[in-house]
Amino acid sequence: MKLLEERITKDGKILPGDILKIDNFLNHQLDTKLMDEIGKEFYRLFKDREPNKILTIESSGIAIAQAASRYFGFIPIVFAKKTVATNMAKNTYEAKEHSYTRNIEYTVQVAKDYLTAEDRVLILDDFLANGEAMNSLISICNQAGAQIVGCGSVVCKTYQPGEKRIRDLGYDVEVLARVKSMSDDGKIEFE
Amino acid sequence: MKLLEERITKDGKILPGDILKIDNFLNHQLDTKLMDEIGKEFYRLFKDREPNKILTIESSGIAIAQAASRYFGFIPIVFAKKTVATNMAKNTYEAKEHSYTRNIEYTVQVAKDYLTAEDRVLILDDFLANGEAMNSLISICNQAGAQIVGCGSVVCKTYQPGEKRIRDLGYDVEVLARVKSMSDDGKIEFE
Hints:
The structure is a homodimer.
Chain A: H1 2-11, E1 13-15, E2 19-21, H2 23-27, E3 29-30, H3 32-46, E4 53-57, H4 60-71, E5 77-80, E6 92-99, E7 104-111, E8 120-128, H5 132-144, E9 147-157, H6 162-168, E10 173-182, E11 188-190
Parallel strand pairs in A: 4-5, 4-8, 8-9, 9-10
Antiparallel strand pairs in A: 1-2, 6-7, 10-11
């Protein structure tokens, strides 16, 4: 997605630890017009799969999923939660996720009420690097017996194992910006 | 907002600790069509204030802010973060928030880059009860010297001190569903 690559080139910052920071339009400040374009692109890529639900993970995934949902005719979103909240349903599907960015182990949760064997799920997220978050969402869908019709990520660092890991599990992955290298002097190259 | 009150009556659950749980359309699963209606209503209420930015707080506020942003011509959103993340900008405005629901003290952060004295900010959030979250967002705007043009909440428990607290600080508050009582047998009454 050309528009997205241009924006990453313009605004992306490379931080120590191989972190691509795109806080000013995706992860802290949101460019909602760009989100809309991202949603439209995911619709183009996945419309033939006819999902009836989008599964994502808080927080940045929510804006992406919402933008896509409009194009799919306002299908519901479920966003997985990362912390144990006292008002969370006790009856949840759970998976572990190790965040390399934050160096934290999360428990990812989805209430059983909101994901069932009848669901055709499109999984969307912001970043695919090691594939930890997406893997946890896949695990949760499998626990629910829900059918995963596809996985989409806004950005993928293709030199990290996440994309292959998800494909090896048998799922289709679509990525809007494929980062093949990031150099210490701030240069970002795309595939 | 009639549609919202009807939905809360239909799907809201009252949990111990005076918690109104509306997980199935606002806080875990998202009814994106309803979000769109909520966004439209906030636009109707605040369009004359001409905000150039929406400030909210992760996670549930994001969907609300994004729905509203479309109606305001895709003005940017900044969502405040609740946890110290290693890839967060060091240069942040911060405020404390005590969550009564979770019984946790959060540090709420916004990167200084994304909120300035030039901004006319509309603050939006999901729940207004004790006013802790909204108060932290107001504090952050004040630190930035940004002008707050209004505060909106999807739901307010009007028998709790939050709404008055925000008004006493001198800010306009608009609420879409005003809950005046919740009983142990599950009955929710609106003003």
